[in-house]
Amino acid sequence: MSLRLVVDNSGDPAAQASPKSCAKVLDRYWLRAAAPEIWARFLREGFASPEAVAVHFEVRFSTACNWWNGLNRPSADKVLIAMVEMPDALTVALAAELDARRAA
After folding, report:
1. Distance of alpha carbon 68 from alpha carbon 64, whole angstroms
2. Around Cβ 99, how many Cβ atoms within 10 Å?
3. Which long-range contacts (CB under 8 A, 24 or more apart) does 85-94 make?
4. Rounded to two decimals, what is the model's pTM?
5. Are the beta carbons of 49 and 74 closer than 8 angstroms?
């Protein structure tokens, strides 16, 4: 078995390389830290009170209050429920938080 090196010197290398924009990398640490505020924004926009949140997501009132005030993140099953039942509202809350971060 032999190896063969193939080199193309037919053109300008700078012209051949098309400029590509760098994809933005998701800052997972920031998202973890911002999750309670994103969730709270989503809840405050979509529900009248912590009581309504507790009833809708079938959680204790104290849990709903902690979410409402941005003190805790929800568990994955509650996020999945929100994604299925209210995907647009959850997307708007996330976009608003991302816009606020970009402006800062």
Report:
1. 6
2. 10
3. 86/42, 86/46, 89/42, 89/45, 89/46, 90/42, 92/42, 92/45, 93/38, 93/39, 93/41, 93/42, 93/45, 94/38, 94/42
4. 0.71
5. no
Span 39-65, pLDDT tens digits: 999 999 999 999 999 999 999 999 999
The three state secondary structure string of the chain is CCCCCCCCCCCCHHHHCCCCCCCCCCCHHHHHHHHHHHHHHHHHHHCCCHHHHHHHHCCCHHHHHHHHCCCCCCCHHHHHHHHHHCHHHHHHHHHHHHHHHHHC
* Residue 27: pLDDT band with limits 50, 70, 90: confident
Residue 31 has, within 13 A of its CA and on its CB side, a CA count of 6
